[in-house]
Design brief:
The protein has 196 residues and is mostly helical. The protein has nine helices and no strands. It has helices at 3-31, 38-45, 49-55, 59-84, 88-105, 112-118, 122-144, 154-166, 174-188.
Length: 196
């Protein structure tokens, strides 16, 4: 089979998978996870049910694939933001703000039933470890340059940042998110001389 034909088939399959995942996410957001059927997904995606079953066996598998894709895109976005800045503290600030804004943007998409299902999967744990490692490494760089406190381990400070900035999902504005990032960064700075 010619290479061009293989690329066309692969591109088609990728497009179908993406359309199915996006359609499923929209249907679940609108109707809840228990109300969405494979028939609905096939109809809304514009494909036959038999074709849909060639790609995914059930709604849960589609949701997991969608969530895995979303997490991957977010990690890529954070890496891009990190790589645009030059100084360690600038890179850390950029990543923390981007993470907080992602949390803030997803606040309206939280369904506790869906979240509980999606967050039990191993891809979430792996992504959390990657994110923690990225922030820990940025904190360690800031410690080496003397811009960040050295009295607390970088891994512990990374935990602090992630837990603090998860609150961005409850905030009402981007301005409030940025203030939260500023407060978090202030906690990472070395204590002033003479303070305990």
């Amino acid at each position: 089979m010619p290479k061009l034909w293989n690329e066309t088939i692969d591109a088609h399959r990728t497009a179908v998978r993406a359309a199915v995942m996006d359609t499923t996410a929209a249907l679940v957001a609108e109707h809840g996870p228990a109300s969405v059927t494979m028939s609905q997904i096939a109809k809304e995606s514009g494909i036959g049910r038999a074709t849909l079953y060639k790609y995914f066996p059930d709604v849960e598998t589609i949701l997991l694939a969608w969530h895995t894709r979303q997490i991957g895109e977010h990690l890529d976005q954070l890496a891009e933001v990190r790589d645009r800045a030059d100084e360690p503290v600038e890179r850390l600030e950029a990543v923390l703000e981007a993470f907080a804004l992602i949390s803030h943007a997803s606040r309206g998409h939280r369904d506790t039933e869906v979240a509980a299902f999606l967050h039990k999967d191993r891809h979430v744990n792996e992504a959390q470890q990657q994110l923690h490692g990225m922030i820990r490494d940025l904190v360690a760089e800031g410690v080496r340059t003397g811009d960040l406190r050295d009295d607390i381990a970088p891994g512990e400070l990374a935990n602090y940042c992630l837990h603090a900035l998860t609150a961005a999902g409850t905030l009402s504005s981007k301005a409030a998110v940025r203030r939260l990032v500023d407060v978090t960064l202030t906690g990472l700075r070395p204590p002033s001389p003479g303070t305990d």
